[in-house]
Amino acid sequence: MADVFGTALKDYQNGRYTEDIKTYSSLDEEDVIPVPYLFRTFDEMPKIEQKALKLARGKVLDIGAGAGSHSLYLQEKGIDVTALDNSEGAIAVCKDRGIKSTVLNNVLDYSAEKYDTLLLLMNGIGLAGKLKSLSQFLTHLASLLRPNGQVLLDSSDIVYMFEQDDDGGYWIPDDGTYYGEVKFEMEYKNQKSNPFDWVYVDINTLQNACESNGFNCELIISGEHYDYLAKLTLKEY
Fold this sequence. Notes:
Blueprint: H1 4-13, E1 21-25, E2 31-33, H2 47-55, E3 60-63, H3 69-76, E4 81-85, H4 88-96, E5 101-104, E6 115-120, H5 134-143, E7 145-156, E8 181-188, E9 191-192, E10 196-199, H6 203-212, E11 215-222, E12 227-234
Parallel strand pairs: 3-4, 3-6, 4-5, 6-7
Antiparallel strand pairs: 1-2, 1-8, 7-12, 8-9, 8-10, 11-12
């Protein structure tokens, strides 16, 4: 499978940036991921990401690290951070940018170490793919946590993407699937990725899933556009 995302990151890192990543989804026909945005500094990050990075502590695993901007910031602060991504290009860029500890793997296949903080930023919980897979995903995250560890994640309630009726309710298709489930494809320089599942989880749905899987779920802050940062900690029994 073409590493579309990684190819775009490598091009930018090596001074060959000429276009952005196109995305096609089941929600809208076409959008773009601006590649320079993936290389943003702390000051250029949304408040939700800044807050998450300030809360990160101990030994940190940055899941879905991409170009490594979050890992780089933490490393510069003297925090022991590992950047994990399943894109070869992304990990090559992380190394090139000076990140000392990297892992090329899908998080669900990774179990080598345990951490005090798991970071899942830029809607990293979306890696679960579908709502029905969220329990399995949370169980795996729990297995990567040290005692008193935490998961810091952001996501969005994408209900705003559906039409509203006159009394403020939303027209959500009643087809038996959760409205936050999206199918994506990425395209860069005429190369297309395979379609992949991604899930945006509203805070109530996340809290219910956490309750069923032994986690406390605390809403830390809400963003300006239906987005939020949550902190998950394991319940003590």
